[in-house]
Amino acid sequence: MSEATLDGRGRLTLPKEIRERYGEHYHIVQLHDGIKLIPIEDDPLDALRAEFADVEKTAEELRQEARNAARDEAGR
After folding, report:
1. Under a CB-based contact definition with an 8 Å cutoff, are residues 28 and 35 in contact?
2. What is the β-pairing status of strands 26-31 and 34-39?
3. pLDDT digits over 20-75, tens only?
4. How far is CA 34 from CA 28, 29, 31, 37, in A?
5. Domains of the chain
6. Is 21 helix (H, G, I), strand (E, B) or coil?
């Protein structure tokens, strides 16, 4: 686990190994007990394409499955 400290101007410098692994751009998410840094890809669309490369269904098929699942859940 690494540590980082704010400087006098409120800036946080992440350790080099963290920047090398996750990049230099982050979303900051406030949680009830702290914060979370979520890395932002240099090209978010490429990241999405890579994430869903093995999905064989169309977006419409996925939407329909989600609708059906929601209806089934609501009917219980």
Report:
1. yes
2. antiparallel
3. 999 899 999 999 999 999 998 888 788 788 888 888 888 899 999 999 999 998 88
4. 10, 9, 5, 10
5. 1-40 (2.10.260), 42-76 (no CATH)
6. helix
